[in-house]
């Protein structure tokens, strides 16, 4: 219901915190660009004066005006790009902070490509729009308006007929082209996608096609896609590009000069020159409408996508500090619901320091979601998670992250060395301590090795090594042994138990391995929690 008002604005209200501080710079850029445009018009006026007064002074005046225009234009470009850089950095921080505060279930709605587009391509589109805004305002508004005034003063109202080609083309670009583009763009995109898919399928499936003697069929599909692509692009060119070329031809100097001469050939030479030159100065910006406004529509669309992300509800955040260092983590009456019904109802359980608790349950029973709620990365439908007597959502975000660390089942590492990845958890750790952590995680590897090229199982163990270095007192692990064999899993379990007991940490682990479950201090079975309050068993 509220989308239309946002679409009517150049910048969505949610982007104003990023754009508002740079408005003075953009205003200065517009002023400098406007002066540059007016100086260029003044140079044209000086040249026109040469017709009646062939004096070197007018040439000098024109050169001075061009010099002023060049200085102002370069200054405007520098100021505008400074403003754009400040705007982009503020917006990137705003988006990045917002992403860190989104619930996990919200983040799962955005795949990697969507997130990459938001934080990279969309912000780049807004950058382009902001950086070129002052120049476009001068080009499309200030210079044409001043040119019309000078044209009226020097040649009279009849000279406005010279603007006819520009007006026709501008109306075409602003009204007809968008409608044609919307109408035929879908066919063009479909043709592009078809040819790309056909090429990918043919190239990637060459070996398989040979095995099944299907090369001819794959090649026929490729040829068919090529023909459809050719026909689709020809149709698009005939309906959109051809008419655009006609409009562009109307904007060329020959069309403007012809009409200008027709309406002012009986006037004085000065008036005739003014009609031609100032008429061309007014019409020329319309040549940029074909692509000059594309960045504007792209920037607005990108701004709307970013604003939609910023409208996503974030997790609650507070400013409270942790009152007790070894506070007990407690789940109180937690309920977790999905579209398919309740996963967990009224779950309560105290997680004691110095105890390793295993959470069991079939796939889809809510184990991972429960871990995310205990970590403060997701909200339950009812109930709360407390550290001591404080709701974890009331804690300062940094305090919460320093106290609770979640190790998800998928453990991406940074594109850096193993040492650099491990030092994120313990910046002051020595190489010996890093090697000991890797040993606890069942991994022997060079600290200078590139972590990004390791196998999935090795990357998981690097993440586990970070956990052994972490100062957090509450550790949450989701299937930490999924990539380990039985022997390494047993050794890792022994190391986790030692870590929990020796450092009085609270460790909560999700696993399907009954052998590991048997070694835990406490067990929680989620299998029947939707039907009853809780099923927790304490190992004596």
From TrEMBL:
Keyword list, A-Z: ATP-binding, Membrane, Nucleotide-binding, Transmembrane, Transmembrane helix
InterPro entries: AAA+_ATPase (IPR003593), ABC1_TM_dom (IPR011527), ABC1_TM_sf (IPR036640), ABC_transporter-like_ATP-bd (IPR003439), ABC_transporter-like_CS (IPR017871), P-loop_NTPase (IPR027417), Type_1_exporter (IPR039421)
Subcellular location(s) of the protein: Cell membrane
Protein topology in the membrane: Multi-pass membrane protein
Predominant place of localization: membrane
GO molecular function: ABC-type transporter activity; ATP binding; ATP hydrolysis activity; ATPase-coupled lipid transmembrane transporter activity
All copies of domain ABC transmembrane type-1, residue ranges: 28-298
Top-rank taxon: Bacteria
Coiled coil: none
Record has ATP-binding as a keyword: yes
GO cellular-component term (any): plasma membrane
Parts of the chain that traverse the membrane: 26-50, 56-80, 133-152, 158-176, 236-263, 269-290
Domain ABC transporter: residue ranges: 322-540
Matching PANTHER family: ATP-BINDING CASSETTE SUB-FAMILY B, ATP-BINDING CASSETTE SUB-FAMILY B MEMBER 6
Protein name, entry field: ABC-type multidrug transport system fused ATPase/permease subunit
The organism of origin for this protein: Celerinatantimonas diazotrophica
């Amino acid at each position: 219901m509220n989308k239309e008002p946002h679409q009517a604005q150049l910048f969505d209200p949610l982007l104003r915190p990023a754009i508002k501080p740079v408005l003075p710079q953009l205003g200065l850029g517009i002023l400098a660009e406007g002066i540059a445009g007016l100086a260029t018009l003044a140079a044209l006026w000086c040249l026109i004066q040469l017709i009646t007064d062939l004096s070197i002074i007018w040439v000098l005046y024109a050169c001075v005006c061009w010099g002023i225009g060049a200085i102002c234009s370069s200054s405007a470009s520098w100021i505008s790009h400074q403003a754009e850089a400040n705007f982009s950095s503020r917006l990137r921080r705003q988006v990045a902070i917002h992403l860190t505060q989104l619930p996990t279930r919200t983040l799962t709605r955005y795949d990697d490509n969507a997130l990459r587009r938001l934080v990279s391509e969309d912000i780049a589109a807004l950058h382009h729009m902001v950086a070129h805004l002052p120049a476009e305002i001068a080009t499309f508004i200030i210079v044409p308006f001043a040119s019309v005034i000078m044209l009226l003063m020097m040649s009279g109202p009849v000279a406005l007929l010279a603007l006819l080609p520009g007006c026709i083309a501008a109306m075409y670009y602003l009204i007809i082209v968008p409608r044609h583009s919307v109408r035929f763009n879908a066919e063009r995109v479909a043709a592009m996608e078809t040819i790309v898919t056909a090429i990918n399928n043919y190239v990637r499936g060459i070996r398989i096609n040979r095995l099944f003697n299907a090369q001819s069929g794959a090649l026929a599909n490729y040829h068919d896609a090529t023909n459809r692509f050719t026909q689709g692009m020809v149709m698009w060119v005939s309906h959109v590009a051809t008419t655009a070329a006609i409009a562009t031809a109307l904007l060329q100097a020959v069309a403007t000069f012809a009409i200008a001469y027709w309406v002012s050939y009986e006037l004085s030479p000065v008036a005739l020159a003014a009609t031609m030159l100032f008429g061309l100065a007014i019409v020329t910006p319309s040549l940029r409408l074909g692509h000059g406004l594309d960045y504007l529509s792209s920037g607005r669309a990108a701004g709307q996508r970013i604003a939609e992300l910023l409208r996503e509800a974030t997790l609650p955040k507070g400013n409270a500090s942790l009152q007790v260092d070894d506070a007990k983590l407690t789940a109180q009456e937690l309920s977790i619901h999905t579209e398919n019904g309740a996963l967990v109802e009224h779950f309560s359980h105290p997680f004691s320091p110095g105890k390793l608790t295993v959470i069991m349950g079939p796939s889809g029973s809510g184990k991972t979601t429960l871990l995310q709620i205990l970590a403060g990365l997701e909200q339950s439908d009812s109930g709360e998670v407390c550290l001591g007597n404080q709701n974890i959502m009331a804690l300062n975000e940094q305090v919460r992250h320093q106290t609770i660390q979640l190790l998800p089942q998928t453990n991406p590492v940074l594109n850096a060395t193993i040492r650099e990845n491990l030092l994120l958890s313990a910046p002051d750790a020595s190489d010996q301590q890093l090697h000991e952590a890797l040993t606890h995680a069942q991994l022997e590897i060079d600290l200078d090795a590139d972590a990004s090229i390791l196998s999935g199982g090795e990357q998981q163990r690097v993440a586990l090594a970070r956990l052994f270095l972490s100062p957090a007192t509450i550790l949450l692990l989701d299937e930490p042994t999924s990539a380990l064999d039985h022997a390494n899993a047993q050794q890792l379990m022994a190391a986790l138990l030692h870590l929990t007991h020796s450092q009085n940490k609270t460790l909560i682990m999700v696993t399907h391995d009954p052998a590991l479950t048997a070694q835990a201090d406490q067990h929680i079975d989620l299998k029947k929690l939707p039907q009853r309050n809780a099923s927790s068993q304490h190992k004596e």
